[in-house]
Amino acid sequence: MGPPESLGIEAGSSDAMLFAMSTMFLHWSFTPYAIYAVPALIFALAFYNRRLRFSISSMLEPLFGPRIRRFGGLIDAVALYALVAGMASTLGTGALTLAGGVGQYLGGETNPLRLGVIVAIVVVTFVISAASGLKKGIARLSSLNAWLLLALGLFMFVVGPTVFMLKLGVESFGVYLDNFFTRSLFTGAAGDDQWPYWWSIFYWAIWFAWAPVSALFLGKISRGYTVREFLRVNLLYPALFASVWITIFSSAALYFQAHAGVDLHAILTDKGVENVLYELFRQLPLSGLWIPLLLFIAYISYVTAADSNTDAIGNLCTRGLTADSDLNAGLPMKVIWGSVVGVVSWVMVSFVGIDGVKMLSNLGGLPAMLIILLASSSLWIWLKHPEQLRIPARSAARADVSDAGAPGAVAPGDASSSYVPAVDKD
Length: 426
What we know:
By secondary structure, the chain is an all-alpha fold. It is built from 17 helices and no strands. Helix 1 (14-28) packs parallel to helix 2.
């Protein structure tokens, strides 16, 4: 209900509705997944093809050469700081959403004690999931979360304003494509407009804060994929799913706000952001069944977002980890860093509020953005000199032995191979 003043859009108008929807596509679809996918691809190539260390600095080695290794610890520390800030801001937002759901049944206002209990439960769950390993806790929770989200989206699509969703989704996606570069680079400087700093830059900061360590996890699980397959799985498919999700849920919220007499903006202003989603679901059939399920889905979603990065943190803090090592190492570090993230998020969201969450994301996003921009130069170097991606002879021999019969590993000479033993031209 508050579009940028410098664009001259009237709040509550049809133009504001299109702006809101197209901005959701900008903030939550292709751009954030590109921010994740590009550094993840770079790390996968460095880790599996070049047999470099499990370190953020490995993504920078093509640009700076082997001398960057002496600064590897410092670079990893900066990335960890960025991720802790990003995870804490996301966990803080998630805790607010969960607190709003709990308040539907227990009553009362959101307070530090309630937030502390929720954060503690989430932290314990994602640490246990990360500690159980990739193929157990992380994979199972991710699969459960995916099926629950599909069920939730299908329910909203069927019982909600379906025709309105489709019409508004198609039209606003066109607006998003038409204004992609203008909106992506919108700073509000000409009109002294603070809107981009409140929203776009806030989201870019979150994505960049998560990106370096997320790249480690996504690259780690990409063994055996071609580059084309990797980009489909980590960029195209998630962005398309997010676009469908926005079409369903954002359109539904705007419909109830504009046409059904449900003032979600007033609820946001008076009761807080944590109550908006639950009020939306009260307008639907079987709300008594879906609201507790929604609360559980929100809980699982934040756990699955955090356990993968906690797993990557454990690997990052393990000395000497390579592609031939046990990649489930680092349990003590997973516990320690999970606790740190929980404490930071609880303090900020309890005593500073949503402004504290935004401040955290900005603090973490800047150093991470610099790392990602530098790492992206490595990809250009490899595009010009693809021969650099050949596995060193000794490492290739070890890979042939260690990968024999391993799930997901690609046999030498297989035309579909990507990371082991060689990158596919796709």
